[in-house]
Amino acid sequence: MLEPISVSLESLNMATLAPMLIAICGALIILIIDLFKDGLHKSLYVMLTLLVLLIDLGATLGLGVNQRGFFDLILIDGISIISQALILLASMLFIPLALTSKRFHEYSYPEYFALFLFMIAGYQFMVSSDNLILIFVGLETASLSLYTLIAMHNRSNSYEAAVKYFTMGALAAGFFVMGSAMVYAATGSLELYKIAEVMQSRMDEAGVMVLLISSGIMLLIAFAFKMSLFPFHTWGPDAYEGASAPLAGYMSIVPKVAAMVVAMRIFGLYIDIGIEEIRTAILLLSVLTMTLANMMALVQLDVKRMLAYSSISHAGFVMAAIALDTTKANSGVFLYYMLFLFTNLGAFSMLWISRHKNNKFHNRFDHPYEKFAGLIKVMPLGAVVMALFMLSLAGVPPFSVFWGKIYIMSSAVDAGYVWLAIVMGLNSAISAYYYLKLIVYMFLKEPADNDGTIYYNINKPLMTIIGIAVFVTVTSILYIQPLLQYITYMVSASGY
Questions:
Q1: Do 278 and 267 form a contact (C-beta atoms < 8 A)?
Q2: How is the chain split into domains, by residue range?
Q3: How far is 366 from 348, CA to CA, in rounded Å?
Q4: Per-residue pLDDT tens digits for 120-145
Q5: 384-409 pLDDT tens trace
Q6: Contact 334, 340 (CB under 8 A)
Q7: Residue 368 CB contacts under 8 Å (≥ 6 apart), including other chains
Q8: How far apart are alpha carbons 462 and 467 in whole angstroms?
Q9: Rounded to whole angstroms, how far apart are CA atoms 368 and 344?
Q10: Regarding predicted confidence, which is higher, 294 or 358?
Q11: 433 membership: H or E segment, kind and range
């Protein structure tokens, strides 16, 4: 007769699950409130979501570094804590934008906020585990929620964007599962720390080596889809165009942060044991991504699509740091996205300052360059703020994104990849052209004729979020050193 297995709560270390459980419980509470009392004002759900995110952030920052929980499936290390904090911070910056306008009816649905919290929980599971099954569960939970959030914008191109994103996401999931299956076939494990030990001991076996390289390529393709790297980027600009402007800004940051953390864990393992083919493949993908995305951004007629290609280029820039696999480069990933978060979300939010009922300037696009012509005469402060965001994205000192770019470039030089730093510098120079193009339209062109169909959406929530983004973008030189020290400490504590 089999003896019953007893599991103590202490050994499960349920505190490591607390951040994810808080987000899930918050989503369920919102659904239950709506079940008993429908038709409540969306401000209640916005405040409730913010409260849940704040409690979640407190629970995350209260965790100790380097501990495991829930049958060793959850790993709480420095990278897990800092990436969860970054995801929650971006979410807290995004959610108040739901109060900015009555025209966006998706914010009136409680389901929107519940799905948003389920998505957050999925991303938290992704970054807080080194088990390939739990990473996959977190990835799909977050992705399915995000597809629905895009479709809830309730426009024809929103449905198109959601379906394209879903199709590409399903394909990426297939590659991830196949790559994980190959890893399991080669090592007999799905935990990354155990996989590393087995890989090291079986490196000399030819069949195992072929399986490992094949699995690495499969997983790289999966993450290239998720991070919209070339040539798997095709869904990106369309999904950004179909989503509301702030959600597009949010999509350019949080899903990529979660995917970057998982990529850091998985591909760092391959590079550490000396499989240089994976490093070469990542470097090739990142260089192609940042270069070709910049070329595509140059010819865009719509500001939102330009920012979409810009975000793809930035993802390629950061992906190069993962190929370097040094503590400095991995710290650079988090520094970059912490600074990029405020600037890019601010830039996408600025697209909301002017709305028009019909596509007045272009048959297809909502935000063509012509719409921003002469903005300095119509809305001087708006033009200055958008110009600051563009200069920051271009990497002009002393604005925030410059420090992220220069730190990753210096980590490439320190790792012996001088050619990579030169490519990064050249791409930053190319990107300056299309960022400056918008500034030229705003400051040097004559304003577009306004027949009353264009109106300006300025209210307190939007002004507050954009104000915070401007403050962080402009004053980055004051806090960059302590922020970098904290990030480096947390990454070093994780053994990366």
A1: yes
A2: 11-354+362-493
A3: 13
A4: 999 999 898 888 888 999 988 998 88
A5: 888 888 888 888 888 888 888 888 88
A6: no
A7: 301, 302, 303, 361, 362
A8: 8
A9: 18
A10: 294
A11: helix 418-444
Peptide bond into 246 cis (omega under 30): no
User: Is residue 416 helix, strand or coil?
Assistant: coil
- Matching residue, tokens 């998505």: 119
Task: Give the global pTM.
Answer: 0.88
- Identity of residue 11: S
pLDDT, tens digit (0-9, with 9 covering 90-100), for 239-281 = 887 777 778 888 888 888 888 888 888 888 888 887 788 888 8
Could you give the CA distance from residue 457 to residue 442 in angstroms, rounded to a whole number?
17
- Is 322 in contact with 478 (CB distance < 8 Å)? no
Pick from 162, 177, 270: which is nearest to 216 by CA?
270
What are the tokens at 97?
């934008």
Rg from Cα positions in the chain: 22
Dihedral sign, Cα of residue 4, residue 9, residue 11, residue 15: positive
- Residue 123 contacts residue 138 (beta carbons within 8 Å): yes
Residue 223 is encoded by which pair of tokens?
A: 């993450």
pLDDT at res. 2 = 55
**Whole-angstrom distance between the N-terminal and C-terminal Cα of the chain?**
45
How far is residue 410's CA from residue 461's CA, in Å, rounded to a whole number? 38
Long-range contacts of 5-11 (CB under 8 A, 24+ apart): none
What is the rounded average pLDDT of the residues 25-50? 84
